Amino acid sequence: MKLPDVKKATQYVGLYVMDFGDHSGVGFTAAEVAELLDSERFADVHVYKIHRAYPDGQMELKGVSQDTFGLEAGMFFQAADEVAGHDDYARLLAWAEKQLPPSRCKVHLAKTIGAYLTALIYPAEFDDEFSRWLLDGHYCSAGAIEGGTIAVQGYYESHPQILERKQLWSQTGLESLHGEALFEATHRAIVR
C-alpha cells in the first residue's frame, strides 16, 4: 500500500487509513469508516488505525478487522455489594466529568446474579482509547474486572437489572463526513 505524503502526520494519530486497492486515504474517523464499510461498494477495503506518527511523515499502522466496526466492547467492574457498586459507578462518572471519554459510551450500575457491577460499554474500535482513558483517571475497582466484546454479549444475555444508567458523549473536535460528501472524499488521498 502506498500512502500519500502527509504533512503534520502527528495530527492523524487515532484516525484511520483505508486501502481501497488502487489508492489509499488517510484521516478517516471511526464513524466514517463504519459508514463506508456498510456500503457494498467498499466491502473489500483494508482498514488500518494510525497508532504513532513522526514529524517526517512516517506512521505506524495497525490492521483493524472490518467486523470491529459493528461490535461493542466493554469493561465490567464487579463490586462486593451494592454500596461498593454505587461507589465504582459514581467514581467513573466523576472521571468522565473531568475528562470526556474517547467516544460515546454507556455506563450502567447493574445487579446480576450474585454481584453488582459497573458496566462501561462503547464501540469496539475504541478499545485501546478506553483502556488509556481509564488508566489516565487511575480508575480501579476492588472486585474482578472482565472486558471485551464477548463480555458485552454475556452481559446482555444475563438480562441484568439496571439500577442506574448514563449515556456519555465525547468531543473529538473532528466532524465526520456523511453520505455523498464522504463517498466523494474516498477519491482524495488525504481526507482531513
Mind explaining what this structure looks like?
- With 192 residues, the protein is α+β, with helices and mostly antiparallel strands.
- It has helices at 30-37, 82-98, 127-136, 149-157, 179-185; strands at residues 16-19, 24-28, 46-53, 59-64, 72-79, 105-112, 115-123, 145-147, 161-168.
- It has a 5-stranded antiparallel sheet with strand order 8-5-7-6-9, with helices on both faces.
- A hairpin with a 5-residue loop joins strand 3 (46-53) and strand 4 (59-64).
- It is elongated and about 55 Å long.
Quick summary:
By secondary structure, the chain is α+β, with helices and mostly antiparallel strands. It is built from five helices and nine strands; from the N terminus they run ββαβββαββαβαβα.
Share of residues in strands: 25-35%
* Mean pLDDT rating: 88
Shape: elongated
Q: Roughly how much helix do the residues carry, as a percent range? A: 25-40%
Kindly provide the radius of gyration, computed on alpha-carbon positions and rounded to a whole number of angstroms: 19 Å
Q: Give the low-confidence spans.
A: none
Class based on secondary structure composition and strand pairing: alpha+beta
- How far apart are the termini? 19 Å
Number of strands: 9
